[in-house]
Amino acid sequence: MVQNSRNNPAGAAQKHHIHGNVPMVVLSNVGMRYNAGDEVLHDIDMTLASGSFHYLTGRSGAGKSSLLRLLTLSHRPSRGLISLFGRDSSQLTSQELPAIRRQIGIVFQDLGLLDHLTTCQNVALPLKVARKYDHDQIDRHVRELLTWVGLGKKLDAYPANLSGGEKQRAAIARAVIARPKLLLADEPTGNVDIQMGEKLMRLILEMNRQGTTVLLATHDSDLPVRFPNPVLHLSGGTLSTVSPMGAVAAIPGGGA
Ligand SMILES: Nc1ncnc2c1ncn2[C@@H]1O[C@H](COP(=O)(O)OP(=O)(O)O)[C@@H](O)[C@H]1O
Ligand SMILES: [Mg+2]
């Protein structure tokens, strides 16, 4: 277990808030189940400090996507506390939810591109929803980012006509284009070759350098070695902190 939010994480979040340094994410004693099934996650304690980068590792079926589903507020915990941006998620009203979700960039494992929209239109969505930019600004920005990830020739293609790797790049572009405070990426390099994987990792690391807090789920134990950052490891439904070289260790005060 990651013991970084000792006895009262809500109180800790409150204290940080006063000092203007709110952890992006705090989970305290969280459990999760699907319907009436057994808990797939239990006793999860985790703090993601503002500006941090963590990997979330674990075998297929360990619960990585499930944990991300809790953080995107698309699934409620069966117990425990989840706080996002200093707010207790159980206290958020349905009016507040969209504004909170807009601060979160998500790369879904199944990518989640909308089939009836072109690459450009898919990637432009978060900027349109933000209502801060005019049409020309959005268009320029979207084309620039898509060209950078090598999709300059696929701007007007529909997802059905993109390869797996191309869809993955479009999904990452959509997740980062509005510069979210928190980026949750579920196996974002799973469908691309090593070179494109490196390029996408550099994009995500650069977002992090510029202040975005990142949690990146991967079953690829090589990534934390190639791009060293702290690892949160899921196994048996619980979380532990792992050094990049693979030794399991509960690090007091770690994980942030
Ligand atoms: N929608 C669902 N309904 C019921 N069980 C699910 C659902 N999604 C995932 N699970 C179960 O939860 C566990 C964790 O799955 P998941 O979070 O997808 O793992 P990972 O992303 O690490 O591969 C697995 O046992 C899986 O079968
Ligand atoms: Mg998964």
How would you describe the overall organization of this protein?
The chain has a domain at 116-174. The chain is 32% helix and 22% strand. The chain has eight helices and ten strands. Strand 7, helix 7 and strand 8 form a beta-alpha-beta unit. It is globular. Adenosine-5'-diphosphate is lined by residues 34, 40, 58, 60-66.
Largest sheet: number of strands, sense, barrel closure: 6 strands, mixed
Helix share bin: 25-40%
Secondary structure tally: strands: 10
What compounds sit in this structure? Answer: adenosine-5'-diphosphate, magnesium ion
As laid out across the biggest beta sheet, the strand order is 6-7-8-3-9-10
Gyration radius over CA: 18 Å
Structural class: alpha/beta
Order of helices and strands: HEEEHEEHEHHHEHEHEE
Amino- and carboxy-terminal Cα gap: 13 Å
Fraction of residues in β-strands: 15-25%
